[in-house]
Amino acid sequence: MPKTERWQWYVEQFSPTEEHHHAVDRVYYQGHSQFQEIGIVGTRVFGKMLILDGDTQSSQADEKIYHEALVHPAMAGAGDRADVLILGGGEGATLREVLRHPDVRRATMVDIDGDVVELSKTYLAEWSQESFNDPKARVIIGDALKFLAEDDDRYGVIISDLTEPLEDSPSNPLFCDEVFRNIKNRLAPGGIYVLQASTAGFHNLSLHAKMARTLRNYYEHVVSYYTHVPAFDNDWAFIACSDGVNLAHLDEPEIAPYCRELRGENFFYDAETHRRIFALPLYLRRALAESGETF
Ligand code: SAM
Q1: Is the full-model pTM beyond 0.85?
Q2: Counted domains in the chain
Q3: What percent of the chain has pLDDT over 70?
Q4: Residue 263, domain member (yes or no)
């Protein structure tokens, strides 16, 4: 028997012609919620992985790369981080990272899928590490679209940790003018909106460029940054938006004291990492400058 037949495989297809095969040694959960297909599997290299609609959301081995990159640049640059809003973020790791800073008085997380949240509590407790039970956490199971339309609070930092706006994804309706306006209206003056903004890999760079191009219609500073996420087998991009702060200009004097104030140790993020993830290669800068397509 060929060696590979001893394994079950989780195959993540990035595009019709590109895929990554992970050998699975345990299936913790496989099923459907009202909104999406959910898988939680164990793999040799990355440990447990959460998969939604066939796309890896995060892995035990490297989720801190993704979540620290998503949360800390914006939190380090924000003038006011008392009230933070998270859109999506079902695993609870974005919430965990936000709650590490002592300035945070309230962290509101709005995820549409109660099944993802409950399954994450059961199987992926290493991600949330009790943050769902933190008295500063306000966890709302509901559509971020509806929440943003009805809420009238202001937040110093808004973090979008939604699934990618692909066809059939419950996050797809959130990528429209009305929601971009609502998010901006929910930001406190000088606040920062940061979003996970799809791959910076060649197979779908145009989606990231389209997000950045769209957001330039709403904010003075729209800055892309990216890092390699090994479990995604991809470079992953983020966008930070603000009228007051350009996160690309943040450096050691702001970042080092911010990191010292965090509870526990960072895995990925510090001033040197910040400089690296905000330094974009020429092909990416060109793709961003040349993109004309908007949502
Ligand atoms: N790391 C991720 C990735 O690679 O795409 C995103 C992580 S997180 C698991 C994405 C979350 O967005 C999911 O828990 C999903 O339920 C949530 N979500 C999708 N559409 C949503 C909506 N309309 N309102 C609120 N949450 C939504």
Answers
A1: yes
A2: 2
A3: 98
A4: yes
